[in-house]
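For the sake of clarity, the format in which proteins appear in this thesis is described at this point. The fold follows as a row of integers, each naming the local backbone shape at the matching residue. One such record is shown here in full, so that the layout can be seen directly:
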Amino acid sequence: MWNFPLLPDRASTIAEQVDALYWFIFAVVTFFSLIILVALIYSAIRYRKGSKASRAGAHHENLPLELIWSLGPLAIALLIFVWSSKLFIDMRVAPKDAMEIYVVGKQWMWKIQHPQGNREINELHVPVGKPVKLIMTSQDVIHSFFVPEFRIKQDVLPGRYTTQWFQATKAGTFHLFCAEYCGTSHSGMIGKVIVMEPADYEEWLAGKTGQTMSSGGEQLFQQFGCQTCHRPGAGQRGPSLEGLWGKQVKLGSGALVTADQNYIRESIINPGSKVVSGYQVLMPLYRNQLSEDQVNQLIEYIKSLSAQEGKSGL
């Protein structure tokens, strides 16, 4: 027997749904292509030049037939639209209990850091059966995070965050590619996702001790003197960051924005872009002073301030 799989192995919860949509579209295309091909060959032979086939009684109008070939494809197209839209939303909205991992694309490597502090290059360790949310940005050009066995692919953009989630269903090692041409060594920007049993993953996580991302962010917060303006109290010149994460923020323009990764990143890199109502632009630009990894650490620290506030009951 030939061992020639048409598709990569399915190794995530969403993979089966993606394949089902793929095979449905493939079946629809094949079905109509065969009908057209058969009709074309039949007509070309039967009504070829010089044939004795009768050409009398040709119909110029046939309402039932016109309705069938108009409404039928419309119904199929709407079905594919609804099906694919639901699948798209399911692939983009991560479960609330998903573990978050930061990914930075760089010519030509994937830099990965877990909130616990573990760092990886071109490797991503995750536990089987646990939802994983990737928070991704690029340090230079557009990249694309692609794991065929998981059926996930998400562009990784400079200047903003994109997210992608998955839940692995089997332990093993799976290919990781950059699916967007990103320069001369694009083909070498490859890696692997290593899916481990939960106990093995916890052991791996504990075996690579290091500074957590929030602790690193706190050090940067102190190093750049951020507490001078952002700590609540007398003489406060910037908005307090305690309890900020996930809340609605009113800007000077009157607009409301959510304090998420993109908002905090933009506020660090370009403080004048979205100024909080009641405050002036006093914060310096950090565009060329902080790496993407350091920005991620600051975001985790600000997120931890909200967690501390919740624990204290404030």
Notes: The longest helix spans residues 15-46. Residues 310-314 have pLDDT under 50 and may be disordered. The chain has two domains: 1-41+64-210, 213-231+241-312.
